[in-house]
Amino acid sequence: MTIRHPAAETFAKACPLPFTTCQETKELYGYAKPILDTKAATSLLNQAGFRCQTPAFDVALGIMQCRADSLR
Hints:
two-stranded antiparallel sheet, 4 helices, elongated
């Protein structure tokens, strides 16, 4: 049985993604690689009512990470 968190899933699929650049990549290769800013994403999720260390938070952050990875 799969436990779902529809509110967290819906929010994570629709919210704007906060990006930052990977400084290591910039220093090594000379270009900036955008990555998900997890601190800003955590703050965004907390503001939406999804608290850290809860299953709904983990689901939402995972979806946001997958979205960010697919844009690279």
